[in-house]
Amino acid sequence: MKPPIWLWFVLPLAVLLWGAREVASAYARYQGARAEVRALEREAEALTRSLPQALAQAPVAAEELPPVYEALLRLAAARELDLKRLEPGEAESLGEVRAWRVELALEGSYPGVLAYLEALPKVPHPLWVEGYTLAPAGGGRGERLALDLTLRVLAP
Fold first, then answer.
1. Is this prediction's pTM over 0.70?
2. CA 64 to CA 41: how far, in whole Å?
3. Same domain (yes/no): 71, 90
């Protein structure tokens, strides 16, 4: 039995319509993605415009430094470290930003020093470690360690 002649026209037409529907849905997804990209570009431009202003307004002023020092000392006391020296410095320029310099000398057990260094990034103030020295304290076998830290705190 031979299929009717109209079937030869309907089958390609159905395949063509199905393909057109797929092309239309892909184009709609493409338009949606373009709209999302435009929104992200606008957001990135807004953030880029506000970045210099945010950098110009650094978070820690001179009168706010004592709580920073207290947080560092509480952190050391919680790890049973002995404070040997705390030397706050003046604000120094680091490129486009200024930062307060703080030098700390601590002494304690190896686990205490390690716990202090691990907890330092969790201090709720904008600081980073500029340099450190770690050596055995008192010429012993390394049971007690001496930690010298140089920290920077963002300044206005």
1. no
2. 37
3. yes
